[in-house]
Amino acid sequence: MTALLQHSGYEEERLQRVAELLPCREVQAGMLLSLMGQPQQCSYPSIFIYGHRASGKSHVMQVLLRELELPYATVSCVECVSVALLFEQVLLSFFGCDAASLLPRSPSLSDFVRIYRQHCSQTPAKQTRYIVMEKAELLRDTDANLLPALLRLQELVDDNVTVILLSEIVWDKFRPNTGCFEPLLLHFPDYSKGELQQILSQDKHPSYSAEFYSSYINILLGVFYSVCRDLRELRHLAALNFSKFCEPLAEGKVKETDTHKLWRNIEPHLKKAMQTVYLREVSSLQWEQLQQMEERECGALRGLSAHTHVELPYYSKFLLIAAYLASYNPARTDKRFFLKHHGKIRKTNFLKKNEKTSNHLLGPKPFPLDRLLAIFYSVVDSRVAPTASIFSQISSLVTLQLLTKVSHDDQLDAPKYKCAVSMDFICAISRTVNFEIIKYLYDFL
Q1: How would DSSP label each residue in 395-426?
Q2: What SS3 class is residue 49?
Q3: What does the pLDDT read at residue 126?
Q4: Are 180 and 148 a contacting pair, CB within 8 Å?
Q5: What share of the chain has pLDDT > 90, as a percent?
Q6: pTM of model > 0.85
Q7: Inter-residue contact 198 to 23 (CB < 8 Å)
Q8: Which among 198, 192, 199 is positioned nearest to 225, based on CA atoms?
């Protein structure tokens, strides 16, 4: 491994340290050392390094420059939202705050070159200076003369300086139409599955053996490698799910060598985590807390659909309750449930021969919009004006597939709907607004 990093200009111990810090990137590091040459020699003016996200570009450059103790300035094109910040960062890294303070409020490229040449003549470079531009694809949105000037900055400032551009896109999409100095190109390929296994296995937990953690990484890559090859995301997923993988071992149910039982325990959790790859909707701590809360859920709520976890607006919940009542109650029973002075009516007076079967067994029935709104205004606990917001919330419930529109689209005067949620679901919604829906259902009288 160290044979790839042999270089006459640097000590063997430092090269050995660099090789240990750059697993699976020895070839690219050796190529960079060859391009950089001897520390005192004049290096090539510009190098363009490209590759996908999390392929080791920034890490390799930072390790080489830091471990070999070379003078360098790292500039993030995301943080430097203006050229003034970019120029200031470079001058600050090489010559200190005195040089950076000489920049005018809105510096031009000529101001930067003048100040650089002035301080370079006072403190000439004993080694090659390196300017590393991360997320360099953002330079295409800056002034048209900035990128060509950076590529031949060595000539402009008359100094032994090399500009290294790190990007996720190829050089052909950088090249200006007017032409520019062509940099040396170096490609960083994606990590293979074996390389990811080797790198991630180095993060082993101190309480467990290296073979045990390596088997866990092998299981993790077997699930996620087909959809995610980002090293950072895979490392995050490995740290997130390792405690769940170790639970049977901590409880004494299995041994470290019983990989099959450990896999059966972690498989459903990995499939659930697969739905949120790259999203980072919650932090690691929040994810663990959610996992624990789901395990403590009562059995009655386990069978609910995924819509239970969708948070609805306050009035949308009442609209959904009204739709459920309209779907499962006969229309002539509305007077009994929603009028205060309806008189004394027995349920037997309503029953017909064909109504002896439960409405919940027959399924939801369609209802017109005016009936839905009439029940809604009766069950809601405050006065609500019939505004456009109410009607838009009905459309949102249809979009969420909680309501189904059964009338034709051209029937605008009296559209008809049907409730599409289960009994368990509507009971869960009713509990959030303290509404006892069972008292208003005809089947439960």
Answers
A1: HHHHHTTSEEE-S-TT--SS-EEEE---HHHH
A2: strand
A3: 86
A4: yes
A5: 33
A6: no
A7: yes
A8: 192
Which residue do the tokens 């937990």 mark?
A: 205
- State how far the Cα of 183 lies from the Cα of 47, in Å rounded to an integer: 5
Which 3 state secondary structure label does DSSP give 48?
A: strand
Q: What's CA 429's distance to the chain center, in Å?
A: 30
Q: What are the pLDDT digits (tens) for 12-53?
A: 888 889 989 999 999 999 999 989 888 888 889 999 999 998
pLDDT under 70 in the chain at which residues? 1-4, 275-276, 278-310, 340-357, 381-383, 385-386, 409-412
Q: Which amino acid is at 20?
A: E
Length in residues, the chain: 445
Cα separation values, 129 from 14, 33, 43, 50, 163, Å? 19, 14, 9, 21, 9
Instruction: Note whether 416 and 407 are within 8 A (CB).
Output: yes
Query: What is the separation of C-alpha 103 from the centre of its chain, rounded to a whole number of angstroms?
Result: 38
Residues 6+ apart with CB under 8 A from 161: 125, 128, 129, 130, 131, 153, 154
